[in-house]
Input
Amino acid sequence: MDATKNSEAPQETLNTEIESFFDSAPPLRDGLNISRKLMAFIERNSLSPESERGDRVVCVTSGGTTVPLEQRCVRFIDNFSSGHRGAASTEYFLKSRYSVIFLYRRGTCQPYCRSLPDDPLLECFESTNASNIQVSQSHSEEVKRAISEHHAAVAGGLLLKLPFTTIFEYLQVEHKIQSGSGPLDMRLVQVPKMLSVLRKVWAPMAFCISFKLETDSKILLEKADMALKKYGMHAVVANELLTRKEEVVVVTSSGKISVRRDKTQAGADVEDPLIKLLEERHSAYIEYSMFDPSATSDR
Output
C-alpha cells in the first residue's frame, strides 16, 4: 500500500472541488481593478531591507456571508456576523504598524466607526438652516476622531478596503421563488473549505489565523483543536457567542492562552490584548522562519 498516495488523496479531492467551484463561478466584478489596487498596495508596503522591523501586511476578512436564493434577490440565507471584531482588529493592527487589507461585507461595521450610532448620518448631524448641516455637539468628538484616524490610515497608504456581498450568483435561480404552490424544499451544497488551500498553496509562507465561533462552550476548544490540525493554521481564535466580547482563547500547537478584556479600563476591547498576542506570535514566527525557511509550525 502506498501510504503517501493515500494521505494525499483527500487534499487532491479538495483541490478538485475548489477548482470546480471557481470554474463554475462568474468572473469577479471589477477584478482587474481590484488586482491592480492589491498589487500596488502590497508593493508599497512590502518588506523593506532598510527597515529594522520591516513592513508587515495583514489581510483581515470581516463580516458574514449571505447566500441569495435568487439572482434578483428576494430571499437569502445569512449568518451571524456584525463585522465588529474585524473592524476592531484592523484598528489595533494599524496601531501596531501593520498595513491592512480589509476585506469586508458591505453594510458591516467599519474601522474607526464602532463608537458611532447605528445610523450615523441621521443621528450625528443636524441642520442649521435651509442649506447647511453640521455635526451635532453630542457626537462631535466621536465623528472628528473617526474621520481623522480613517483619513490618516487611507491617505498614508496603510489601509486598503475591499468590499464583498454574496456567494457567487451561479448558485441561484434568476427569479423570485414562488411559494403559492406549497412548502419549499431546498438542498444546500457546502462551499469548499478554503483554509487548507490558503495555508498550503495560496500563501504558504504567511502566518495564518482562523476563528472558531460556537454556541456550546463544551465543544468550542475541541473544534478549535480540530481546525488547527486539519487546516494547518498557526493559531485559532476560539470564542463563544455569549462571551465573545469579554474573552477568547487562542489555540496554538504549543498550548491555549485565554485573552480577556481589561474591565478596569473604560471602553476597553478584548481585541486590544488579542492583537498584541498575535503580533508577538507573528514576530516569533518570522524570527524562526529566518533560521529555518522551510518551517511551517508555530513556535
Observations:
- The chain has eight helices and eleven strands.
